[in-house]
TrEMBL record:
Catalytic function, reaction form: holo-[ACP] + malonyl-CoA = malonyl-[ACP] + CoA
A GO biological process held by the record: fatty acid biosynthetic process
Keywords: Acyltransferase, Transferase
Keyword Transferase: yes
Source species of the chain: Acinetobacter larvae
Residue span, Malonyl-CoA:ACP transacylase (MAT) domain: 18-325
Name of the protein this chain belongs to: Malonyl CoA-acyl carrier protein transacylase
InterPro entries assigned: Ac_transferase_dom_sf (IPR001227), Acyl_transferase_dom (IPR014043), Acyl_Trfase/lysoPLipase (IPR016035), Mal-CoA-ACP_Trans/PKS_FabD (IPR050858), Malonyl_CoA-ACP_transAc (IPR024925), Malonyl_CoA-ACP_transAc_FabD (IPR004410), Malonyl_transacylase_ACP-bd (IPR016036)
Amino acid sequence: MSAKRLEQAAQATKTAFLFPGQGSQKATMLAELAEQFRGIEDTFAEASAAVGFDLWHIAQSGEKLDQTAYTQPVLLTASIALWRLWLELGGVVPKFFAGHSLGEYSALVAAEAMTLADAVKLVHLRGQLMQDAVPQGEGAMAAILGLDDAQVVEMCQQASQAGTGFVDAANYNAQGQVVIAGSAALVQQVMAAAKAQSGKAIALPVSVPSHCRLMQPAAEKFAQALEQTAIELPQVPIIQNINAAVATDASQLREALTAQLYQSVQWTGTMQYLQQHDIQYVVECGPGNVLSNLAKRLTFIEKAFPIDSKSRIEDALHAILLAEGKIA
């Protein structure tokens, strides 16, 4: 679809597309769709040529899929394969894109701000730098449930002041759900404090502590790669992670992608932005249904659709086209 048509189509809908981040990956992802739609494997072949290793093999076998340097390009490619299939099947162009952490890169490719080849190379490097920034076992992440954002922030500040290292609020995912990240011992300390205040704390199985101050060395190196990558202003507005706002020029995009490595993901604010702009339907464009499940909790969302299988994508296509009067 041409850039102008993409932009025009996006103005006439109440739908937003959400791209998931790390944690949504699973072995054999998109296998069923690949059997029926050649474009799935074609997209993986295109991305594999850019990075120099077989992303489809990793996606299907699960080999190295838990290593962030490989997880990130595989997930991004899966999301773009689904986006291309959505358009091929006649799906609407959304009014907004938003991506959770890594998913912001998927949004940039879908909005034609960045090529798939450049994006997969960037996120492969991003994963390597993130892994190198904190030695294995020294960082951790955990989900804190049932407490106010301010309570979690205060506990992180107290732990960081008292201990060696840092722990920060990394993802504001929903009301009463904040993910923390930082030095492993301090993450454990905040988990204990949360439980003492009648909250819940769940350790997350991740290899790096994302979106916290421990990632600043990675961000400094990553900024150099971003400066050498062509980035255009998106044809469909992208709500950025760090401020839940839409960039107005390409330099803001680069700055946001750098800061995103060590600043919090403002997902709650992103959903509030969609509410303010009359979004009623969201489509989760990637493996799994983490973001669509979060969206279902929101009263302004009429329906949230994951589209990682043939039946799911068909349901979403029909429901949205029907709701928006594009079919009878």
